Amino acid sequence: MENSPLSETVIYNQGSPFREEELISKVIPQTTLYDTYVSKTILSPGIKGLRPHVHSTCTFVVESLELLDTDFSQVVKSNSMFSTNIDHNLELGSCNSEIDKALELVLLDMNEGERSEVILSATKREGKLRDQFILPVPCIKCVINLGKVTELPKHKKSSLPSNNYLLSILNASTEEKLEMALNDKSCGVDLFKNERYVDAFHRFALGVKILLTVDMQELTPSLQTLLSTLCSNMAECQLKENNPTMAVSLCAKALHHDPSNVKALYRQASASWALGDTDQADLLLQRLLQLDPNNLSAKRLNCEVQVKIKKYKDEYSKMMKRIFSS
């Protein structure tokens, strides 16, 4: 590709949901750093100042798509967002998968009418929540044309709209934060039902982060319950990914906000049982069955736990008899 006098390559890091628009560095045109999520080379700058923000709806076209890593071929093939030479409409902030979030990240820093060559990166997690700190690798190279950017109606905007996601959350009212968190919960549940446990986990986590910005004096019992539910759902995602240690920690957070959360008690008991902590599993199950005596899942797990406890007691009794009979 020939250098354009207007071309400029910028590098971003997706990082946490609160750093999605953070500009990491500007480098010489045509230079790409592959340890980041997005690099963008501006080919045509568009209308300066007319940029989308979270919850804007964008129209864009993808051109000249090139797959840089064959391990992502199925992901790209099954993602209609990367179909070339057709108009796509996307509400920013609605993406769930890692590669879609990388695309969303670059759109947030484009002007209306801008045309840029981008490289998107993602991590080779193989759908797992483990290995959180592995570096992303470049997987897609393409040209993006950003068309019309449509703003939300004023009554649906937060009090101080911004393309900085953190600011848009901090300046939202408690009612708006509740609405956003409920939406994240609903999206997470749908993703979980489709067995997209990694994406569901991050969607639930986003809801938690939103609620944690609510002033403590405004954290009503209903908000505490929602916060507990989201943490418990995150724990279930970890259990599905065979990460019981993380599940125990998340359930503890859930029970801190709502000690009577039966699902959190069951999930923490299941995680403790998986880790071989029989006594803790027993303690949690007895507490759960006091709250919900007819819980069938808890009863089944409790039977397994009691069998192991009885076996342990029998073995201990035999050992003590041998000691004192000799």
Automatic annotation (TrEMBL):
SMART domains to which the protein is assigned, alphabetical: TPR
Cross-referenced InterPro entries: FKBP4/5/8-like (IPR050754), FKBP_N_2 (IPR040478), TPR-like_helical_dom_sf (IPR011990), TPR_rpt (IPR019734)
Chain positions of TPR repeats: 262-295
Q: Which UniProt keywords apply?
A: TPR repeat
Pfam families listed in its UniProt record = FKBP_N_2 (PF18023), TPR_19 (PF14559)
Limits of the BDBT FKBP like N-terminal domain: 36-149
Quote the protein name from its UniProt record.
70 kDa peptidyl-prolyl isomerase-like
